[in-house]
Design brief:
By secondary structure, the chain is α/β, with parallel strands linked by helices. Helices cover about 40% and strands about 15% of the residues. The strands form 3 sheets. It has an 11-stranded mixed sheet, sandwiched between helices. It has a two-stranded antiparallel ribbon with strand order 6-7. α1 packs across α10, α1 crosses α11 and α10 runs antiparallel to α11. The longest helix has 18 residues. The relative contact order is 0.17. Bound molecules: NADP nicotinamide-adenine-dinucleotide phosphate (NAP). The site of NADP nicotinamide-adenine-dinucleotide phosphate (NAP) has 17 residues, from β13.
Length: about 400
């Protein structure tokens, strides 16, 4: 990584990939075809390094997430993955969560924009152009939970009663919601830098601080403090400028529940969003639905301090379609475009996005969009990739 936080990428990098379970066998080759063609168009070549996770890893190594896979992402910094099955009853809660935790990928990045021609349930999907920065390591997702009726729950309830005077019903399960200044500020810092670098207009801190004052409320306060301490030359908080930022980036905040209404009724008022883990989970899917659903929503998990990033399908493995060359590879293809942006290959990323856009505009789509689009030309997963390559 360079001193300015960007990655120094050779023209022939080695990039690890996880094919993914279920429809991964269809989606990955289609995506790779697009990536290789787009890289070649700009005089570059990727050496793909297969690493194992999920069912394929379990079959071949007896482990769901082998250490070599994690190490490959550490060594090569960026990688891409198809969807992975969450093992039911296995020792691992979720492979995706495990990867985020071991690599400390503290940002879940979800750009949400509409592509002309994509079927949408709202009247003006073209007004949706938001980028969500969801905190990935804290909040109720940190995994600190005890089940109702266990000795641990009883001890905790007693302790909270004795030490803090809290009366919690005896038959409660309990979860802990940690939100730290460190975790909040590094997330919000990444969102502000992203917004400044790309000439975005605003960052909205989405929180539930009116109720959860010392976690979500603190997230908001730390955000504004960060703007004053580190970004006063390029950004300004709402209260410090009465909503008039001049040519600086505006940092504002909104309560999570009203945000879920306003992203529908006034999407043009939202640009980059920085939020906590649970709010971000809800918001990402609610927004993805407005622009065509998870079939083409890209996602990434990134640590902006190390540069490490795992770019991923946001849809699941859709096992009933596995091996049928049927499903939409758009999510992995657009996640790849995000990955190329992250490594500084803006030209490659731009070509992929424009070619996908042109393909959809020509109504060349997979079954999921075809069933919602009048006059569509339905193609297979691999044929969609070929159509995108033709339009690169
Ligand atoms: P899912 O695999 O996302 O499938 C649900 C439905 O979404 C599918 O039946 C299909 O709808 C549609 N869909 C999914 N992928 C699509 C694609 N590429 N193109 C078009 N439509 C697509 O969700 P799930 O059935 O709840 O989960 C299956 C497994 O995936 C579970 O093990 C889950 O844990 C895992 N999962 C992994 C990830 C990840 O790795 N990122 C994310 C979510 C879930 P229709 O049948 O209506 O066409």
């Amino acid at each position: 990584m360079r001193a300015d936080g960007t990655l120094a990428t050779p023209d022939d990098p080695i990039i690890p990939f996880i094919e993914g379970d279920g429809t991964g066998v269809d989606i990955w080759p289609a995506s790779k075809m697009v990536f290789d063609a787009a890289a070649a168009k700009h005089g570059r070549k990727i050496t793909w390094l297969e690493v194992l996770a999920g069912e394929k890893a379990y079959r071949e190594t007896g482990e769901w997430l082998p250490e070599e896979t994690v190490q490959a992402f550490r060594d090569h910094l960026v990688g891409i993955k198809g969807p992975l099955t969450t093992p039911v009853g296995g020792g691992i809660r979720s492979l995706n969560v495990a990867l985020r935790q071991v690599l400390d990928l503290y940002v879940c990045l979800r750009p949400v924009r509409w592509f002309s021609g994509v079927p949408s349930p709202v009247r003006h999907p073209e007004k949706v152009d938001m980028v969500i920065f969801r905190e990935n390591t804290e909040d109720v997702y940190a995994g600190f939970e005890v089940a109702e009726g266990t000795p641990e729950a009883r001890r905790l309830i007693q302790h909270l009663h004795d030490e803090l005077g809290w009366n919690i019903r005896a038959d409660s399960g309990i979860g802990v919601k940690p939100v730290s200044e460190t975790g909040s500020k590094r997330l919000i810092r990444a969102a502000i830098r992203y917004a400044v670098d790309r000439g975005r207009k605003s960052v909205t801190l989405v929180h539930k601080g009116n109720i959860q004052k010392f976690t979500e409320g603190a997230f908001r306060a730390w955000g504004y403090e960060l703007v004053r301490d580190e970004f006063s030359d390029v950004a300004v908080g709402w209260d410090d400028c009465d909503g008039n930022p001049g040519d600086r980036l505006l940092v504002k905040d909104a309560i999570a529940d009203i945000t879920l209404q306003q992203v529908l009724t006034r999407p043009e008022e939202f640009d980059v969003i920085a939020t906590l883990n649970l709010n971000g989970d809800y918001l990402s899917d609610a927004l993805a639905a407005q622009v065509g659903g998870i079939g083409i929503a890209p996602g990434a998990n990134i640590n902006y301090m190390t540069g490490c990033g795992v770019f991923e399908a946001t849809n699941g493995t859709a096992p009933k379609y596995a091996g049928q060359d049927k499903v939409n590879p758009g999510s992995v293809i657009l996640s790849g475009a995000l990955m190329f942006e992250h490594i500084g290959w803006m030209d490659v990323a731009g070509s992929i996005v424009r070619a996908l856009e042109a393909t959809i505009a020509d109504k060349v789509v997979t079954y999921d969009f075809a069933r919602l689009t009048e006059g569509a030309h339905e193609v297979r997963c691999s044929e969609l990739a070929e159509a995108i390559v033709e339009r690169l």
